[in-house]
Each structure stands twice: as C-alpha cells, then as structure tokens.
Specification:
eight-stranded parallel β-sheet, 231 residues, alpha/beta
Length: 231
C-alpha cells in the first residue's frame, strides 16, 4: 500500500490552530518528524511533503537511514539516550543532539566533532519532573551544564529539550512545560544565546505551543503507530 502523508497536513493544521490560540506565528514553531522504527521510504515521502528536520532515537538505525537518504538535504537530530561509546557517531553524523544531559557526554561530543564541520547544535535535556527512569539534568543543574556547553569548542548551545511526565491532566502537562520555559528564560536572562525550546509531541502539541515551544517532536501523528508497537 502506498503510504500517504496526510499526517503532515493534519499536523500542520493542528499547529496553526494551536498558534492561533496562543497568539503566535506558526512560522516560529518547527516540526521535527520522529521516524523511529519507520522505514527510510516514509522519511523520503515526508521530505517530499516539505519536512526537512528528522529525529531519531537509535544511533545505528539513524546511520542506516542516513545512508539510504544521502541524496536528500535532511537536517538530522538525535533525541535518544546517549551512550558514551556512541558519541563519535553522534558528533560526526548529526546536525543536532538534543539529549545532552551530563558533562562527560558534552566533552566527548566537543572533542569528537570534526574540525571541517560546523559546530554541533545541542540542547540540554531537562528532567523537569524528576522522574528516576528518565534521562536529563535536574533543573538545579541546568545553569552549570549550560555554562560548560557555552565554553566547549565545536559546540553551539541552542536551548532545552524536555519530556514531561505522562498525565491525563492537561493542566499538569502544561505546568511542566511552563517550568521548562522558565528555565529557558532564566538562562537567557543570564546571557546565554538560546533560540530553541524543544517540547511537545503528538499528544500534547497544543499545551507545548501555549508555553512557548519552538520545536515539536511528532512521530505517531505523522507516520502512524510504530511497527511492532503494542496496541
């Protein structure tokens, strides 16, 4: 069956409505298409529908897709948990790494970014709700990690990324996004030049836009359920 990218238009409409409600210009919020477990051909079709930024959670899966799609001008983002032995691949093959949460990883990415490439864009992942099973720097550690990132060669600190606690209460989700935005604004007030607030996914796009997200990470609503995912 030929895959149709109706999902792209649906997400764009949701984003436009969310921005209208928030009094924002839709051009200030970018869609990051998250294609975890979906084949490269779906990325190619999404690219044909106008998307240019794609996110992956697994290093090897991403490298395989990059090879298959090398003819396309894609901006690749890594958004998964980072193992120290994978940092060279991240530093070499990605434009963005959004899940930096500790100094060791930051220093390895800085040292391993090839000199002939532009600086690696990074976001600091914040564990805003202090969930023990999730990666991310705790809120009180964000400023120090940002200072380390600002001093690191071959690194360009762009902003913060967060995944709030899963909740059926929209108010709770929005409160988590608000606290991430406050951290973002605190860092900017301290002189950090930040422009990216990566928060919001298929289920909570609207709340994220209300609280200032500049990049929403959308998977299911673009590509459908992941192959092999539980119903």
């Amino acid at each position: 069956m030929n895959f149709k990218m109706q999902g792209v238009e649906n997400v764009r409409l949701r984003l436009e409505k969310a921005c209208a409600t928030a009094g924002r210009d839709p051009a200030t919020v970018k869609i990051l298409a998250v294609a975890k477990k979906h084949p490269a051909e779906k990325i190619r079709e999404a690219y044909g529908a106008g998307l240019r930024d794609f996110g992956e959670n697994g290093v090897q899966e991403a490298l395989d897709k990059q090879e298959q799609l090398s003819d396309l001008d894609i901006c690749w983002h890594f958004i998964g948990g980072i193992q120290s032995n994978k940092t060279r691949d991240l530093a070499t093959h990605f434009h963005w790494v959004q899940s930096v949460d500790r100094v060791k990883v930051l220093n390895r990415l800085s040292a391993q970014r090839p000199a002939d490439q532009s600086a690696l864009n990074i976001c600091l992942q914040v564990n805003i709700d202090r969930e023990p099973q999730k990666s991310g720097v705790l809120p009180e550690g964000v400023a120090e990690l940002a200072a380390q990132a600002a001093r690191a060669p071959r690194i360009r600190l762009r902003g913060l990324m967060a995944m709030p606690r899963v909740s059926d209460d929209p108010a709770q989700t929005r409160d988590s996004f608000r606290r991430v935005r406050e951290l973002f604004e605190m860092l900017r007030g301290q002189g950090f030049t930040l422009d990216t607030l990566s928060m919001g996914m298929s289920a909570d796009l609207e709340a994220a836009v209300q609280e200032g997200s500049t990049l929403v990470r959308i998977g299911t609503d673009l590509f459908g359920p992941r192959p092999g995912a539980a119903d």
